[in-house]
Each structure stands twice: as structure tokens, then as C-alpha cells.
Amino acid sequence: MEGEAAYGFIVNVDAQGSGLLSDTEKPEMRRRLYEVTGTAFEQAGIRPPRLYQEDRGDGILGVLAPDVPPVRVLGEWVEHLYQNLRESNRHVRKPLRLRVGLHIGRVTADAHGRSGRAVDLACRLADCGVAKAILKAADGAPLVVAASDRVHEDFVLPGGRWVDPAHYRRHDVELKEGRTTAWFMVPGRSRPPEPDTSREEPEPPARNRGRDTADDAAPERPSRPRTSAETTGGGRHVQIHQHGDGDVYAPERIETINIDRRGGGR
Question: Is there a contact between 105 and 151 (Cβ–Cβ < 8 Å)?
Fold first, then answer.
């Protein structure tokens, strides 16, 4: 019922590289996206009303009824999707490559669609940098599956038809909500390739999140070259080094400070 949370298995599908497509290319991509995923659900025996789908532009959000065995999605649906993609890509110039995020949890329905933290996590997994990097590294592969830690523990590890736990690899991923564990699998390969995430944009520092101050808005100032400073206090000489935009002085008492700025700085 609308407004009430129900337990469901969540499948989020995203198309890799869709942002590089032109406006004239996107409709064909979407047609193929719905064709390969919808046919896979039919082949796995998963149909409405046990399957809810919501359009996401370059992807599809699916929520399955509680009576649909998750192993059927992990096994039959994923395998059929993989084979459908192979066939669909056989004679095209730009192959369709998909990322699938899987999670299970509470989902709330309303007149506009489905929502909940479980939905957010499934979407984040499909869109995370590790999933993108794995698919990029898996040259020629049309599909990567990212399962949440809960899905892996409850449904992947026991195994089943076309579900082999040995084909999954664990990675810690950084999401907007924080770090979490996910398990990745590339159909057709015994193990997914190692992702190259060296070019991923880093998350902003925690101290800057949610703040709107003049200091945070100003561009970061470059660090000054290191200089040395010699302090004289109580007849003692203390050698001090400068780091970044600050000078650190350690003596107990300082009477006179002579600082050599020949190395630069302000």
C-alpha cells in the first residue's frame, strides 16, 4: 500500500558511458536497454505484478515482490541478461554495457515511485567508481554486477543455479553515505579484473561538507616553500621548520625571533 514500507529485492541497472551519447543515439540505447533487461526477466519467469519497474533515463530501477526468490535474480536473470547483451552487441558499432546494483531491504511506495535507504544503496552500487572501473578494465565484457554485503552473505554464499560465490570479489567502496562493502562479478569470467580507481575524484574533506563559509568558498592557497627560522630565547638557539602555510615554534620562552624569508612565502 502507498506510504507503507515493504520488503523487496532491488535491482538497479545503469548504462555505462551513456553521457557520451548524442541525443539521436540515446533513444536506441534506451530501446536496447529495455529489450535486454525485459527479455531477461521474462526468461527468468519474473513478471508484473511481482516486478515493479521505474524509468531512470539511462537506467531502470526494479523492485521485486517478497515472494520472488533472490537467487533467481542472481542466477537466471543475470545469466540471461549477459547472454542477451552478447547477442544485442554482436553487430553494433557501440556495444551496450551495463552496471547492475543489487540490494534487499525496506522499500516505500507512493504515487511517484519507490524510495528508501535500500533503494539508494542499490543505485549507489551500480553507479560507484569501483563498478565503473571494473567494467572499464573488463575489456569486451558487457556487464558487471555489484551486490551489497547483505545480498552476498544471504544469497550468494549459499550458491544456487548459475550462482558461484568464487566468481565474486570483495571491495570497499566510498559512497555519499560513507564507506561500505560490496561484491563484484563479471559474467563470463571466473573473477572480475582489478579496477583502476587512481583517476577517481576524491571525496571532499569531511570538515568542508555541509558548510558554507567564506573560508570554504575561497580557492585553496598554494603551500609556501619550506623555510627555516632561527629563534633566540634565553640564550638558546632553536631551529624551526615551516610546513605549508604555518610556522611551528617549540621553545618554552621566546624573546626575539629572526625569520629568514629568502626561501619565499609571505
Answer: no
DSSP string for residues in 211-246: ---HHHHSPPPPPPPP-EEEEEETTEEEEEEEETTE
In the prediction, which pLDDT does 5 show?
A: 86
C-alpha cell at 112: 511517484
φ, ψ at 123 (rounded to 5°): -70, -40
Nearest CA to 114 among 64, 54, 180, 156?
54
Q: How confident is the model at residue 199 (pLDDT cuts 50, 70, 90)?
A: low
Does the N-terminal peptide bond of residue 49 adopt cis geometry, omega within 30 degrees of 0? yes
Q: Which residue in 213, 14, 7 sits closest to 98, CA to CA?
A: 14
193-208 average pLDDT score? 59
Q: With H, G, I as helix, E, B as strand and everything else as coil, classify residue 83.
A: helix
What confidence tens digit (pLDDT) does each residue in 26-69 have?
999 999 999 999 999 999 999 999 999 999 989 999 999 999 99
The predicted model scores a pTM of 0.74
Any idea which residue has 543505485 for its cell?
123
- Report d(CA 249, CA 246) in Å as an integer: 10
231 touches 258 (CB < 8 A): yes
Q: Determine the residue type at 204.
A: P
pLDDT of residue 2: 59
Q: How far apart are CA 173 and CA 192, in angstroms?
A: 15
The whole-number pLDDT of residue 243 equals 39
